[in-house]
DNA sequence: AGCTATCTCTTACAGGTTGTCAAGGTTGCG
DNA sequence: CGCAACCTTGACAACCTGTAAGAGATAGCT
């Protein structure tokens, strides 16, 4: 038995032409939805230099397109996280690198600032929230074992809190209430304060 | 000069009947949009026991309805905040009360967990984010002056961070990854850690 | 009680968006 | 070259938002 009833459709052979269209569509969606999350399929298609029906030829629905976009973004994100070796650097340093990767990611994918644009299939389960937080959680857990971080708060919660804090900081920048530099500084300091310290009793 | 060119349309006399409809509509919108942010006007109207056109008779557009809903929610929120005297209690205690008011608010207005449902008129300026954070900022500023809180981070940022943290905690509950009790505890502890302490150098 | 302004309901319409379908032209690849 | 895969055009149904006019019901005032 090779692979009977699982989500592994044979990665069917595509023509070079088709893959070019798919890339153009995903790229257009990233840009257009980034600045206008409620843009129409027509807008996305036009930006990609393609007809609306061509978009539907590759993505069965708008939600499917967004999901694919998020999955591609998650893959990039993971690659960046793998490049910075979070598992060997000292925890505080690793945390700073994690945040750097996040800033890089948010700059490229501003869409992800408003996570609930069309009401995803299941509001919570996207590739990002399934795959990124565990990395950070592992990092924080390591820091708690080495004593660099306090252990009075569960690592899973801290991971989500840190990621959330970064999104809040990014929103401050988008709202024009802080410069990028200030936001990064505030975020790093707040994050260290949240994770570090000897506040347990 | 009494009031020439400002947003003060003479609060025109409404029939009791009309006000009842408006209340029913706002209430229905609160409930329906709370569990399904992309519900149609028809759905809201039906839940309110009213026709769709009646909704449009009172609210010129969907966005206007959402704005009115948020304004009503903000008024409630402010009333709750006024009831808990944040300006006299010791800062740590006052902060706990502020968070309590927040939980109460989020329980009643789950809509506000996904702030960017239809793409608000201006993404950032709603009554909530204009009026609630300053209260918290004042509280934090007081705590920083009395020495209860650390002063190395600006109060305005801490205010937004605390409110954001609470929304993250609420999202954890909504996602089934924590109980209400756990979330409240984690949120309070994290918040105190963010604000308090002697980490300045 | 009666009158009137206000409110609601019904019916209808225009415009936009999402999906779907079929026919025909074009391009990549063996 | 030839075929299958791909793109395009045009058309369609369904839904949602917003607007409009007229008939009927209701509240408030005299």
Radius of gyration of chain A: 19 Å
Order of helices and strands of chain A: HHHHHHHH
CATH uppermost class of the largest domain in chain A: Mainly Alpha
The CATH topology label of the largest domain in chain A is: Tetracycline Repressor, domain 2
The number of domains of chain A is 2
**What kind of assembly state do the chains in view correspond to?**
homodimer
Structural class, from helix and strand content of chain A?
mainly alpha
> How many distinct helices of chain A?
8
The poorly predicted ranges of chain A are: 1-8, 116-122
Average pLDDT for all residues of chain A: 87
What is this entry, summarized?
Chain A is an all-alpha fold.
């Amino acid at each position: 038995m090779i692979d009977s009833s699982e989500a592994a459709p044979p990665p069917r052979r595509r023509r070079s032409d088709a893959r070019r269209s798919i890339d153009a569509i995903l790229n257009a969606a990233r840009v257009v939805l980034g600045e206008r999350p409620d843009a129409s399929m027509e807008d996305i298609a036009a930006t990609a230099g393609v007809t609306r029906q061509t978009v539907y030829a590759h993505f069965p629905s708008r939600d499917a397109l967004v999901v694919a976009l998020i999955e591609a973004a998650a893959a990039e994100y993971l690659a960046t996280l793998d490049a910075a070796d979070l598992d060997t650097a000292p925890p505080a340093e690793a945390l700073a690198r994690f945040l750097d990767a996040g800033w890089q990611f948010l700059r490229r994918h501003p869409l992800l600032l408003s996570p609930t644009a069309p009401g995803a299939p299941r509001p919570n389960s996207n590739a990002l929230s399934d795959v990124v937080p565990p990395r950070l959680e592992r990092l924080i857990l390591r820091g708690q074992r080495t004593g660099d971080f306090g252990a009075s708060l569960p690592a899973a919660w801290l991971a989500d809190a840190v990621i959330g804090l970064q999104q809040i900081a990014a929103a401050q920048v988008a709202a024009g209430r802080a410069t990028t530099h200030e936001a990064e500084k505030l975020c790093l300091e707040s994050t260290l304060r949240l994770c570090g310290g000897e506040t347990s009793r």
